[in-house]
Amino acid sequence: MEWLIPVLIVVALIVIAGIYLWATYNSLVQLNVRVDEAWSDITVQLKRRADLLPNLIEAVKGYAAHEKAVFENVTRARAETLSAAGPADAGVAEGHMQQALKSLFAVAEAYPQLQASQNFLQLQQSIVDTEDKIQASRRFYNGGVRELNTKIKVFPNNMFARNLGFHEREFFEVIDGAAISEPPRVQF
After folding, report:
1. What separation in angstroms does the CA of 111 have from each of 17, 45, 53?
2. How many CB atoms lie within 10 A of CB 40?
3. What phi and psi, each to the nearest 5 degrees, are found at residue 165?
4. CA 141, 53, 85, 98 torsion: positive or negative?
5. Taking the CA of residue 56 as centre, how many other CA atoms within 13 Å lie in the half-sphere pointing to its CB?
6. pLDDT value at 142 more than 90
7. Per residue in 62-100, pLDDT tens?
8. Domain chopping of the chain, boundaries
9. How far apart are CA 115 and CA 104, in angstroms?
10. Is 67 exposed, middle or buried (0-12, 13-18, 19+ CB in 10 A)?
11. Which residue windows are transmembrane per the record (predicted)?
C-alpha cells in the first residue's frame, strides 16, 4: 500500500502534463490558423487594390499620357505586390506601391478636369477604401503573429513548440517606413 501514493502522484503529474500539452498544442494550432487567415485577408486586399490600379491608370492616362514613367512605376509596383511570396516580400512591395501611388496622385492633381471626372473620383475612393482595409488587415495579422510568437517563446512552451512543428512567423512590416509615413494624398 505504501507504493500506491507515489504511483498516484506520478500518474497525476503525467495527467496534468498531458492536459497542459494538449491545451497548449490546441491553442498553438488555433493561433497558427488565425495568422494564416489574417494573411489571406491581406492578400485579398492587395489583390483588390492591384485589380483597381489598371482602371485608375487608364483614367489618368487619358489626361496625362506623357507621364509614362509614373505609369510604369505603378505597373511595376503592382506586379511586385502580386508576386510577393511572404510578409517580407510584401513589405518591400508595399513600400514601392506607396511611392508609386503618391506619384500617380501627384500627377492627377495637376489636371483639374481629371479631378472632376466621376469615374476617377470613384476609383480614387475605392483605392482609399482598400488602403484602409489593408491597414486594418495588417494590424489584425501582426496582432495574431505577436500572439503566436509570444506563445511559442514563453517558458515552458519554448521547450516543445518547435518540436511540434510551430515556428515564429514574420510580421508584415513595410521595409521603407518613409514610404508610408504619409498616406497617398487624395483631394476631392
Report:
1. 69, 28, 18
2. 12
3. 95, 10
4. negative
5. 28
6. yes
7. 777 667 788 888 889 989 988 888 898 898 888 888 888
8. 16-180
9. 13
10. buried
11. 6-25
- Inter-axis angle of helices 118-153 and 4-61, nearest 10: 160
What pLDDT, in 10s, does the model give residues 21-49? 999 999 999 999 999 999 999 999 999 98
Specify whether the CB–CB gap between 138 and 49 falls below 8 A: no
Cα–Cα distance between 131 and 90 in angstroms, integer? 14
| DSSP character at residue 188 | -
Residue tagged 501611388 (cell numbers): 101
Q: How many CB atoms lie within 10 A of CB 161?
A: 20
Q: What is the pLDDT of residue 47?
A: 92
Secondary structure letter of residue 181 according to DSSP: S
Identify the burial level of 83 via C-beta atoms within 10 angstroms of its C-beta, where 0-12 means exposed, 13-18 middle and 19 or more buried: exposed
Q: Is 146:63 a contact under the CB 8 Å cutoff?
A: no
Cell numbers given for 185: 494624398
For domain 16-180, say whether CATH 1.10.3720.10 is its number: no
Question: Rounded to an integer, what distance in angstroms lies between the CA atom of residue 115 and that of residue 187?
Answer: 8
pLDDT attached to residue 146? 96
9, three cell numbers: 502522484
Contacting residues for 140 by C-beta, under 8 A, at least 6 apart = 38, 41
CA angle 79, 83, 88 (to 5 degrees): 115
